[in-house]
Amino acid sequence: MMAFGILLLSLAALLQFFSSYCRSLIAASSKQPLSPEVKDVTGLTKGASGDDFARVIQLLHLCPERPEDRSSVQAIGAYFRMINFLRATVARVVPSLRAWTEFERAQCAYFAAVALDRRIAFSRDMLAQQMDT
Amino acid sequence: MPGPLGYSIWFLGALLEVSVVVCAVAKHSLRRYLFLNLYMAASFVVSVGRFHFLNHFGLRSNEYVYFYLYSDVLLTIFLYFALISLYALVFDEMKVKSIVRFAAVLLLAGTALFSYSVIAESADKILSHFVFELSQNLYFVGLVLTYLLWGAILKLRETRTRLIQLVLSLGIYFSVFAATLALRNLYPNLHVVWEYTAPLFGCLLPLSWAYAFLRLPEESRLSTARLVVIPR
Question: Closest Cα to residue B86, out of B155, B165, B141?
């Protein structure tokens, strides 16, 4: 019984810490403007929406990985799935939660687009280095 | 003996621990986050020591078991002080460093006394039991303290992105560990699973700390209002 109580409490704490951590990752990238190329490629010309996330992630996987952003992209992927689950369950009956989940999904898509922008710049740098040598 | 997967997770963990210190040195943050880096350096040294004892004496030897237990409690105490150093950073402007230190030592002594009172009646191997109990209790104290620190960060509207991410990573680490310990007690027969989960989750903390040191400059700021999950 005691172990079950500890499990519930620690899972609740984990959920809160994890969502705040993901929001801090998103907040850190939300100030960065997207390059015109990435806007064109992803179609995020009028701002991001949650439905763009899967497409942007697919594009992200086409670029060479940067080791330093791998874990954050995975964390945001997990956060996005969590938000989707909320949207499909609780948000159906709570309208304010529905608007919030839409906003969060859009933020996740913007984060992925910023990561894509960085990976493209990284690939370009690598190519330039290879051309030099 | 651990299999290839066990060894891979172990080496990955050790590598990540070193990378935290390297990233902190490269970004000139070693002194500012000294206790965090000391904990990571100690973790690496302990990993090397455990590998040495495992190879020389074997998994079931007394030497390895004792080294594992005592190094574990030492690491937990290091982690506890790393957490307290984050408290000191959050409350930096209030000039309450000495009070934080005193309260931390008092809480550590209290936890040690409580752990002793729990195991005092067991007649044999009292020191090993004490060390194990203290280590477990300190993890739960750590989780509660991190939760309180997170509350203080929100209340004080702390804006330092790196500091916020370091605290949140620690919170994730402590809560995953507490959940794993609880699950271990509920399902002790799944020891094959537990053998890999602890070292795997152990990689989370150095990974996120290395990211915070590498990617986020000390000057980076964000509003804590964006981090609270309150649908409007």
Answer: B165
